[in-house]
Design goal:
The complex is a heterodimer of chains A (112) and B (114). By secondary structure, chain A is mostly beta strands. Chain A is globular and about 45 Å long. In chain A, 36% of the residues are buried. In chain B, strands 2, 4, 5, 6, 9, 10 and 11 form a seven-stranded mixed sheet that branches. Chain B has a four-stranded antiparallel sheet with strand order 1-3-8-7, with no helix packed on it. With 114 residues, chain B is mainly β. Classes of the chains: A mainly beta (112), B mainly beta (114). Chains A and B meet through strand 4, strand 5, strand 9 and strand 10 of A and strand 4, strand 5, strand 9 and strand 10 of B.
């Protein structure tokens, strides 16, 4: 069974801190790794990573994939209270259409 | 483009009843995937539909079923509800459901079974 493991499961920081969220996955038929942010309801898409070593950036958020070591990290610099959310990583791959396998999520709380 | 929409947003049912949830994908997207999210199990894949056909199914009992219409709108049905079915049900759409395509999620339907 495909497995995705995120760490830490929860994190509490103060505004302005930098955080690094981790995601490791199993390799079988890997296709891509996706990061989502979930606040109240719908997970919103952040990044999709398919190639090793290429950093994706969007404002204060960035992410990179290491296909050799089978992990990805999501960095958030200069955190703000609005970054408080659950961050989910998901793996697409295998022979399955339309299926993402999600990690447990990291609950990030940013205090003012 | 309008995003993925789901109705209803909230539902309260009692054990033994059945429920139907609806999902309208982003215009032009033909693949719809359904997920169940609970605090204990996280986000788990239920099934995926493309061109009115179920192409993939997760590890859920047969009480969970779905269908897709010719306009790509999808419904999922849960029969004989159990307390453990209380969850947030999310649908997501993508262009073709191909491995590696980005899926975009709707706001979810919060189901409470009493």
């Amino acid at each position: 069974e495909d497995k995705v493991v995120q760490s830490p499961l929860s994190l509490v920081v103060h505004e302005g801190d930098t955080v690094t969220l981790n995601c490791s996955y199993e390799v079988t038929n890997f296709r891509s790794l996706l990061w989502y942010k979930q606040e109240k309801k719908a997970p919103t898409f952040l990044f999709m990573l398919t190639s090793s070593g290429i950093e994706k950036k969007s404002g204060r958020l960035s992410s990179i994939l290491d296909k050799k070591e089978l992990f990805s990290i999501l960095n958030i610099t200069a955190t703000q209270t609005g970054d408080s959310a659950i961050y989910l990583c998901a793996r697409a791959g295998g022979t399955s259409y339309g299926k993402l396998t999600f990690g447990q999520g990291t609950i990030l709380t940013v205090h003012p | 483009k309008a995003g993925v929409t789901q109705t209803p947003r909230y539902l309260i049912k009692t054990r033994g009843q059945q429920v139907t949830l609806s999902c309208s994908p982003i215009s032009g997207h033909r693949s719809v995937s359904w997920y169940q999210q609970t605090p204990g199990q996280g986000l788990q894949f239920l099934f995926e539909y493309f061109s009115e056909t179920q192409r993939n199914k997760g590890n859920f009992p047969g009480r969970f079923s779905g269908r897709q219409f010719s306009n790509s709108r999808s419904e999922m049905n849960v029969s004989t509800l159990e307390l453990g079915d209380s969850a947030l049900y999310l649908c997501a759409s993508s262009e073709n459901g191909e491995r590696g395509e980005t899926q975009y999620f709707g706001p979810g339907t919060r189901l409470l079974v009493l």
